[in-house]
Each structure stands twice: as structure tokens, then as C-alpha cells.
Amino acid sequence: MTDVRRTILEVLNGETVSPPPIWLMRQAGRYLPEYRATRAQAGSFLDLCYNPELAAEVTLQPIRRYGFDASILFSDILVIPDALKRNVRFLEGVGPQMDPIDADGIDQLDASNVMTHLAPVFETVRRLRRDLPAETTLLGFCGAPWTVATYMIAGKGTPDQAPARLFAYRYPKAFASLLMQLADISVDYLVGQLDAGADAVQIFDSWAGVLGEEEFAAFAIAPVARIIEGVRARRPGAKIIAFAKGAGFNLKTYRQKTGADAIGLDWSVPLNFAAELQKDGPVQGNLDPMRVVAGGQSLDDGIDRILQTLGNGPLIFNLGHGITPEANPDHVTALVKRVRSFG
Ligand code: CP3
Hints:
By secondary structure, the protein is an alpha/beta fold. The chain has a single domain (about 30-280), classed as TIM Barrel (Alpha-Beta Barrel). It is built from 17 helices and 9 strands. It has helices spanning about 5-10, 35-40, 45-50, 50-65, 80-85, 105, 115, 120-130, 145-155, 160-170, 170-195, 215-235, 250-260, 270-280, 290-295, 295-310, 330-340; strands at about 70, 90, 95, 135-145, 200-205, 240-245, 260-265, 285, 315-320. A hairpin with a 3-residue loop joins strand 2 (about 90) and strand 3 (about 95). Helix 9 (about 145-155) crosses helix 11 (about 170-195), helix 14 (about 270-280) packs parallel to helix 16 and helix 16 (about 295-310) packs parallel to helix 17. The two termini are about 25 Å apart. Coproporphyrinogen III binds near residues 26, 29, 30 and 39.
């Protein structure tokens, strides 16, 4: 065990690993025929998330196929609202839906059963740590409070999260309470994943980019800082990646103020700015997922530019957001091969 290297953990410690380790956000998913087969066998999407045997199986599928350096627990950020009894369902071709919450509902949220409800997820993590290759870093995750709150308030996905932004202006107290409650639940949830065998965790703030300056500080930075502080108070040294999609110029203070070990970068972050951010610590990203759909020269060019700019510092190679169902699995093979031939 002592001579096994988990390169992603090395990067999270600030080391430069060459070639850089690689994994892809949403690496288990519909672009893989083996995922679609297991998904069909599981029943609903949530049934799959709460079935440790099948959830572990779909987590392992991209590791078997591509040998990524990290494996990310198969689950969803919306298992937290589900555990809070918000009647979450995933409708085919529509996306997630749940009962929209109002200010009274926020007052009445009952978190007492959340960890029991999520026990199958911890069981999936235990199985994964047992079944994964020793050198594969196992990542747990949760959604950031802002992003989870946007779905809880609208009751569905929306193009710009206008319902949550409006709610936050109209009902600032209730909204702050929702973010706090989600942050505290997330601490327990991440500590549970670390204790079950996750090596590090990622916090997904997919909707950070729709926030104004003050709102970014209050809704994106403060709750994530609270989660990271809370996790480290209980598990000192826990390694944490924070991904705030669309945060742009705010990313500099985002790392400083949240205390994240590494920050995830979406594909809109200019590479020279990314290199600046890398002077402060490890970065993860940031290939446009559409390049993986297109393949060929556009894929190679995108990979090379990232490697040339960021490859000689602490980098975890990743996409700038999740891989899409249209991605060609053979393009992923080409991507991994090209990253691994760097240096
Ligand atoms: O492989 C992995 O990355 C692990 C699994 C994972 C899923 N969702 C599985 C999933 C992770 C880490 C997530 C995170 C997640 N879920 C986020 C944050 C990251 C991001 O992509 O922005 C968000 C916003 C969600 C909420 C969510 N879940 C939406 C909006 C949707 C519908 C859109 C879609 O892609 O279908 C989901 C469903 C979902 N989560 C699927 C998968 C594989 C597809 C559903 C299916 O297979 O039927």
C-alpha cells in the first residue's frame, strides 16, 4: 500500500505530476453503452443512485474502459433534497423535478432522517474503495448550497435560475436559512463519504455564474467556506476541490476565501488567467465538452493548449463541465492517450 501513488492526491498536495492525472466530470453516464444497459436494469435514476451494487458498477465502468486516475462516486447532487422529502424525480428527457419550496417550507425542513436515507450512498463508497485499483483516487461529492437551492426553489432546472435569484431578494432571511441548512447537511454528508473511504471530495457549484458580485460572496463563497471549514474541523487535512462554473474573475478570491485545495475551471476561463490562478495552487479543467463530441483536430488542439499552458504546474486534467450524452466514447480514448503522452 505504501508504494501505491494516487496522483490526484499528489496534485491536491500542490505537487506537479507529469503527465497530469485525468478524470472527467460525469464520466459515468449516457455516452457509455454499458451505463445505458445498467441504467435500464435499475429502474428509475434514483433507484440507481440508491442501489450500492449497481451504483458501484456504473462508477467502475469508465475506470475499466479508460483507466482514469480518479473515480467519482455515482450519485447526484439532488439526493439531498430527496432526503429532505422534496419529492424529487427525474423525468426522461425533461430533467429533475421536485416540489418547489417556499419560505414556510424552509422553516419546516426536517433533516433528522437525512443520513439514514443516504446510507446506501455510503455503502456504495465502501464497495468502491474495496473494488477500485489501489492507484485510483476515489472522489466523493456534493452540490454547493446555492446550486442545490436553485433546484429546490424552482422545483426544476431553469436557464438562468431567475426563480432562486428573485426568491433570494424577496425573502433574504428564509434564503439564508436554506443555504445554512444545506451547508450543515453537506458537512455531515461529505464526512460520511470520507469515513466510508473517499480520498477527497468535490463541491459542484454549477450555477455560480448567474450571481452578481455581492451575491457571489454571500451565496457561493460563504456557504462553501462553511462546508470546507466544517469538514476540516472534523477531518483535518481533508482534500477538497471546489468547482464554481462561470465564476470567472471571482475565482481568485474563491480559492482564498473558501479554502479549497484545488479549484475547477470551466472552459470559458482564459488559459493565461488559469495560469495566474495556478500560481496560488492546483487547478482542474478545462476542456470544452463539445470538443469531445467533435473529436479530431478540435479535440487535439484544445488538449494541447491546456497542456502547454498548465501542464508544467499542479494540474488535474478534466473537462470544463460534464461530458454530454452525445460524446463519442472513442474520442475519450483519444483524449486520455493524448494527455498521457504529454511531457
Ligand atoms: O459520473 C459522475 O460524474 C458522477 C455522477 C454525477 C451525476 N450527476 C449523475 C447523473 C454527478 C457528479 C452529478 C452532479 C450533478 N447533478 C450536478 C453538478 C454537475 C453538473 O453537471 O452541473 C447537477 C447540476 C446535477 C443535477 C442533475 N442531475 C441534472 C440537471 C440532471 C439532468 C440533466 C442530465 O444530464 O440528464 C441530472 C441527471 C443525471 N445525473 C444523470 C446522470 C448520469 C442523467 C440521468 C440518467 O441517466 O437518466
